[in-house]
């Protein structure tokens, strides 16, 4: 199985900050990488698919990049509604493993 | 409206069985990849199982041989039959639709529709 890691595991940031989260796969997954946002008590929400394609309805302050084994999710200007946990997930092979998550909270 | 609604969770003793249901509206279950994802209390997301549109099924090693994913096309509903339940199966279980997009000449999948989750607690 492909293992996914994320860094950092948590971060504190202020509204307006630029935030970057990193995801690494244990082997090359080309661009088969998704990013999800999850708020407490809620289901995850797809933000990015194919490493850099923005899901419909997701604000343009979210962007993704990378290919192979190293990927990045960037929030260009953090908004109050962005405080949540973010997960990467590989869709290259089954099982579609998730990263352990990165919790973004208020500084 | 595109929607998934899970039911069937509850408190069950170790070794017991439970069947989760996921009723879809606004789209056809059998035409999509459908997955189950779970989240143990205070933990991250864990992929559990998938059924492809062609009917092929796959499972996480942690549930293989104990859980069965299936669908009823007439009811447009996805199921997860869970047998020989263990304490470590305690989690919120989500069903999700995986949509497909053509990007730069390749097809990519992402879970774009999720249910609200149903809680399974395995305890004596």
What oligomeric state best describes the polypeptide chains here? heterodimer
Sheet with most strands: strand arrangement of chain A = 2-10-9-4-5-6
What does the average pLDDT of chain A come to? 97
Largest interface: A-B, 26 and 26 residues
Overall structural class of chain A, as computed from helix and strand content, comes to mainly beta
What is the β-strand count of chain B? 11
Structure annotation, total helices of chain B: 0
Strand content of chain A: over 45%
Distance between the termini of chain A: 36 Å
Gist of the model:
With 107 residues, chain A is mainly beta. Chain A has strands at 4-7, 10-13, 19-25, 33-38, 45-49, 53-54, 62-67, 70-75, 85-90, 102-106.
What's the arrangement of secondary structure elements?
The complex is a heterodimer of chains A (107) and B (124).
Chain A: E1 4-7, E2 10-13, E3 19-25, E4 33-38, E5 45-49, E6 53-54, E7 62-67, E8 70-75, E9 85-90, E10 102-106
Parallel strand pairs in A: 2-10
Antiparallel strand pairs in A: 1-3, 3-8, 4-5, 4-9, 5-6, 7-8, 9-10
Chain B: E1 3-7, E2 10-12, E3 18-25, E4 33-39, E5 45-51, E6 57-59, E7 67-72, E8 77-82, E9 91-103, E10 106-114, E11 118-122
């Amino acid at each position: 199985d492909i293992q996914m890691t994320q860094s950092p595991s948590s971060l504190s940031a202020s509204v307006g900050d630029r935030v970057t989260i990193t995801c690494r796969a244990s082997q090359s997954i080309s661009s088969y990488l998704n990013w999800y946002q999850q708020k407490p008590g809620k289901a995850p929400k797809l933000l990015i698919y194919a490493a850099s394609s923005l899901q419909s309805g997701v604000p343009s302050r979210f962007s993704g990049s990378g290919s192979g084994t190293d990927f990045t999710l960037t929030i260009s200007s953090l908004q109050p509604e962005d405080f949540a946990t973010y997960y990467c997930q590989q869709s290259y092979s089954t099982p579609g493993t998730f990263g352990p998550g990165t919790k973004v909270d208020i500084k | 409206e595109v929607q998934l609604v899970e039911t069937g969770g509850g408190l069950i003793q170790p070794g017991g069985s439970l069947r989760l249901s996921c009723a879809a509206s606004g789209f056809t279950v059998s035409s999509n990849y459908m997955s189950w994802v779970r989240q143990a209390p205070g933990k991250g997301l864990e992929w559990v199982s998938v059924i492809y549109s062609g009917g092929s099924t796959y499972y996480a090693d942690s549930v293989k041989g104990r859980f069965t994913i299936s669908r009823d096309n007439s009811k447009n509903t996805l199921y997860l039959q869970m047998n020989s339940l263990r304490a470590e199966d305690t989690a919120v279980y989500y069903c999700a639709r995986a949509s497909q997009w053509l990007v730069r000449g390749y097809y990519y999948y992402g879970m774009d529709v999720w249910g609200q989750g149903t809680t399974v607690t395995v305890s004596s």
